[in-house]
C-alpha cells in the first residue's frame, strides 16, 4: 500500500532524510519511530505531498507522490500532531466543511459525517463549538476528519499526546479498530504505545533507516539468543539456589544465569543463552532430571525502549520518559 524508495530530503546543509526505503502492506498498522530530529515529520510530509523530496520517490496505493500528488492526497487521511481544527466552528459544521474540501457533497457527505461521528464516538458533541471541547474529544474530531473521505492510508502523528490515561486507552482502541479498514502509520516517540498498537515498526535515526521488522523479531534480535525466566521449586520445599544456579550454568548453550526472585520454596532465575542458541528444551529436561519441579519457563521480555536505545544510541529524554510512564498507566 505504501512503497518508499530511497527517499531523501535535504534542507540547505541538513540532510533530514537520507535514502530511506520501506514498504507497508495493506491493512497493517505500523509504528514509525525515531528520536527528536530523526526525520519523522519530514518523511510524513513527503508522503502526504506537502513537501517535495530532494531525491527518491514513494507511492501510495500505487500512485506516485511526484507524478500523481492529487490521487495520493485523496487516498491519505492525515492527523498532524496538532489537529487542524477551527475552534469557532461546531463539530458537525467543521466536518461538513472539511468533507467539502475533500470533494464530498450532498447525501454522501451527510452519510460520511454520521459514520465518522459514530465511529469516533463524538455524536454527543455534534453541535458543540470545537473550542469548548476537551482535548480527548478534539483528538477524536481530528481522527474523524482524517477518515472522513474513507482514505486507504491513515497517517497519525503523536495521536495520544497530551491526553489523560483514560482518553489514551480510548484513542488507542479506536486506532486499533481502524486498522484493517485502513493502512495506518503511527508516528510517535511513545514506545509503549507502539508495543501495544502496532504489528511492525520502522525505526529511523539521524535521517537513516535503522530497522524495519515486527516487534517480536526485533526483540529476538536484540537478545541475540534467548533470555528465559525459569521458576523452580524443590520437591519437598527445600532448594539450594546456589546448587540450582551451578546446574543451570552447565546446560549446553547457557551463557549466564542470574537469581531473580526467591519466594517461599520457589526460586526464579533468568537464563541468557549464547548467541543463536535456544535452550528452553535442555533447561526443562535438566531441571526435571535433577528431581526439581519446573513451575514455569517463559521468555523474558525485552522492551521496545531497550531495543530503541540499542539501535539509536539515544538517551530517553525526560519528556519521552514522562510520556512513556503516562502511556503505561
Ligand atoms: P522529527 O520529526 O523526527 O523530530 P524532523 O523531520 O522534524 O524530525 O527534522 C529532521 C531534521 O531536519 C532536523 O535536524 C531538523 O532540524 C531539520 N529540519 C526540519 N525542518 C526543517 C526546515 N524547514 N529547514 C531546515 N531544517 C529542517
Q: How does this model look, in words?
A:
The protein has 329 residues and is of the alpha/beta class. The chain contains twelve helices and 14 strands. The chain has helices at residues 40-47, 69-74, 91-101, 106-119, 135-147, 165-178, 191-197, 215-223, 241-250, 280-289, 304-312, 318-328; strands at residues 2-11, 14-24, 29-33, 55-60, 63-64, 76-79, 153-157, 183-188, 200-205, 208-214, 227-233, 254-263, 266-273, 293-299. It is elongated, with a radius of gyration of 25 Å. Mean pLDDT is 87; it is low at 315-329. Bound molecules: adenosine-5'-diphosphate. Residues 11, 14, 16, 34, 36-42 line the site of adenosine-5'-diphosphate.
Which characteristics define this entry?
12 helices; 329 residues; alpha/beta; six-stranded mixed β-sheet; elongated; single chain; disordered C terminus; 29% strand
Largest sheet: 6 strands, mixed
List the strand order in the largest sheet.
Answer: 6-7-8-3-9-10
Beta-strand portion reads 25-35%
What spatial form do the alpha-carbon principal axes imply?
elongated
Average per-residue pLDDT, rounded, comes to 87
**SS field, number of helical segments:** 12
Rg for CA atoms: 25 Å
Distance N to C terminus: 34 Å
Low-pLDDT residue intervals, each spanning 5 or more residues: 315-329
In total, how many beta strands? Answer: 14
Roughly what percent helix?
Answer: 25-40%
Assign the structural class, choosing from mainly alpha, mainly beta, alpha/beta, alpha+beta, or little secondary structure. Answer: alpha/beta
Amino acid at each position: 500500500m505504501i512503497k518508499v524508495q530511497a527517499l531523501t530530503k535535504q534542507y540547505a546543509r541538513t540532510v533530514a532524510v537520507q535514502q530511506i526505503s520501506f514498504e507497508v502492506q495493506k491493512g497493517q498498522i505500523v509504528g514509525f519511530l525515531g528520536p527528536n530530529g530523526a526525520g519523522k515529520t519530514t518523511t510524513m510530509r513527503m508522503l502526504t505531498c506537502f513537501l517535495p523530496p530532494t531525491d527518491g520517490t514513494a507511492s501510495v496505493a500505487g500512485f506516485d507522490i511526484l507524478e500523481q500528488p492529487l490521487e495520493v492526497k485523496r487516498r491519505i487521511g492525515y492527523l498532524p500532531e496538532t489537529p487542524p481544527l477551527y475552534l469557532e466552528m461546531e463539530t458537525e459544521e467543521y466536518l461538513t466543511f472539511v468533507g467539502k474540501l475533500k470533494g464530498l457533497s450532498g447525501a454522501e457527505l451527510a452519510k460520511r459525517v454520521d459514520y465518522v461521528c459514530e465511529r469516533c464516538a463524538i455524536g454527543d458533541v455534534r453541535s458543540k463549538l470545537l473550542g469548548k471541547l476537551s482535548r480527548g474529544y478534539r483528538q477524536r474530531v481530528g481522527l474523524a476528519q482524517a477518515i472522513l473521505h474513507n482514505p486507504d492510508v491513515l497517517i497519525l502523528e503523536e495521536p495520544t499526546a497530551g491526553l489523560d490515561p483514560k482518553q489514551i486507552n480510548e484513542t488507542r482502541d479506536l486506532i486499533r479498530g481502524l486498522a484493517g479498514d485502513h493502512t495506518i502509520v503511527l508516528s510517535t516517540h511513545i514506545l509503549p504505545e507502539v508495543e501495544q498498537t502496532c504489528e511492525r515498526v520502522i525505526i529511523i535515526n539521524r535521517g537513516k533507516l535503522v530497522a524495519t521488522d515486527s516487534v517480536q523479531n526485533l526483540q529476538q534480535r536484540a537478545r541475540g539468543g534467548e533470555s528465559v525466566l525459569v521458576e523452580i521449586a524443590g520437591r519437598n520445599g527445600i532448594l539450594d539456589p546456589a546448587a540450582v544456579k551451578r546446574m543451570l550454568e552447565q546446560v549446553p548453550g547457557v551463557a549466564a544465569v542470574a537469581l531473580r526472585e526467591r519466594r517461599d520454596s520457589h526460586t526464579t532465575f533468568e537464563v541468557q543463552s549464547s548467541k543463536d542458541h535456544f535452550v528452553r528444551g535442555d533447561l526443562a529436561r535438566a531441571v526435571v532430571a535433577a528431581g526439581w519441579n519446573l513451575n514455569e519457563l517463559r521468555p523474558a521480555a525485552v522492551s521496545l525502549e531497550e531495543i530503541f536505545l540499542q539501535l539509536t544510541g539515544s538517551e530517553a529524554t525526560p519528556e519521552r520518559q514522562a510520556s512513556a510512564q503516562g502511556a503505561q498507566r
